[in-house]
Amino acid sequence: MKNFFSLDNGFFAIMDKVSNILWLNLLFLVCCIPVFTIGVSTTAMFYVTLKMVRDEECYITKSFFRSFRQNFKQATGIWLLIMLIGGVFVADFLILRNMNVPAGKALAVIVMALAMILFFTVIYVFPVLAKFDNSIKNTIKNAFLMSIRHFPWTILLVLCILLPFVLMYIITWMIPVMFLLGGAGIAYGTSYIYRRIFDQYIPREEEEEGQLDEMI
């Protein structure tokens, strides 16, 4: 009976993991309310999930706010930059799409391609910031290079991120599930992929955050 309630029991181990993800998602949602903190909240969330997938000792709340404090300036700067560039792309696309000239359509395609590159970079940038200590410039650069260098993994990450939203659109009861697990659930699942990628850039002797300099 004692072993039944032990965390070594598969069922209770899974429930413990789910409860951690639920709590992490709540922290993430609350800290995203000001909107300009979405970047640092995402970074803090990945800081925790990257530890969780390695089975490292991790106090959810303490670890989340530790990363939140440490990465606030850089993550917020990156997020505001993403919002600015993304806004420019959206405005350009809407203007060019409505132009009744061939050049407008061609330029709209170019803007879409650039937006896709931005999206790929964004997928990596906050996990990279959560794991590696670096400047804003090098963090963005390394995120972009990783998205290209590990392109098959990038496509898988895109699918993992988009699939829950597709299911939510198709299956109504997925909406409350997404609300409860949402960002943290996706972050936890994709962190297994990020771990596989990041391990290629971390020397064996490093214990925690690494210094990731220019990759090329």
Strand and helix layout:
Elements: H1 10-32, H2 38-52, H3 60-70, H4 72-97, H5 102-131, H6 136-149, H7 151-170, H8 174-198
Describe the structure.
It is a single chain. The protein is 76% helix and 0% strand. By secondary structure, the chain is mainly alpha-helical. It is globular. It has helices spanning 10-32, 38-52, 60-70, 72-97, 102-131, 136-149, 151-170, 174-198. The protein has one domain (14-201).
What is the count of β-strands? 0
**Helix/strand-derived class?**
mainly alpha
Question: Domains counted in the coordinates: how many?
Answer: 1
How helix-rich are the residues, as a percent range? over 70%
Mean pLDDT: 88
Low-pLDDT segments: none
β-strand amount = under 5%
Largest sheet: none
Describe the structure concisely.
The chain has eight helices and no strands. It is mainly α and 216 residues long. The longest helix has 30 residues.
Q: Which key phrases capture this entry?
A:
216 residues, mainly alpha, 8 helices
